Amino acid sequence: MNSLILRTTTRLLIGVLLLFSVFLLLRGHDLPGGGFIGGLVGAAAIALYAIAYGYEHAFALLRIRPRTLIGVGLSLAVLAGILAAFAGEPMLTGLWWIRDVGPWTVKLSTPLLFDVGVYLVVIGVVLRMLFSLEEH
Amino acid sequence: MLSAAVLVGFAVAALAPFATPHLGARAGWVWATLPAALATWFAAQVPQVRSGAPLEQAIPWLPSLGIDLAFRLDGLSLVFALMITVIGTAVVIYAGGYLRGDRQLPRFYLLLLSFMAAMLGVVVADDLISLFVFWELTSLTSYFLIGYEHERTSSRDGALQGLLITGSGGLAMLGGFLLIGRDVGTFRISEMLAEPAALTTSPIYLPALILVALGAFTKSAQFPFHVWLPNAMAAPTPVSAYLHSATMVKAGVYLLARLAPAMGGTAVWFGLLTGVGTATLLAAATLALLQRDAKRLLAYSTLIALGALVVLLGVGGTDGAKAMVVFMVAHALYKAPLFMVAGSIDHEAGSRDVTELRGLGRVMPVTWAVALLAGVSAAGLPPLLGFVAKEVAYETLLPHAWGLAALVAASAVMITIVVLVAWRPFAGRETTAPRSPHEAPPSMWLGPAVLAALGIGFGFAPDVLAQGLLVPATRAILGADASFHLALWHGVNTALILSIVTVAMGVLLTLAWGPLHRFLVARLGGVRFGPAGAYLGFLDGLRHLAAWQTRVLQSDDLQRHLTTIIGFAVALAAGTAFVRGGIAFDLPPVSGTLYEFLILILVVVAALATVTAQTRLRAITSLGVVGFGIALVFIMFSAPDLAVTQFLVETLMVIVVALVLMRLPSTLLRKPSERFVPAFAAPIAVLGGGLLTVLLLSVLSVPLDRTIPAFYDAASYPEAKGRNVVNVILVDFRALDTLGEITVLAVAATGAFALLRRIGAREARDVAYTAPRGSGDDDEAGDGERDA
Question: How far is A108 from chain B (nearest CA, A)?
Answer without folding.
Answer: 11
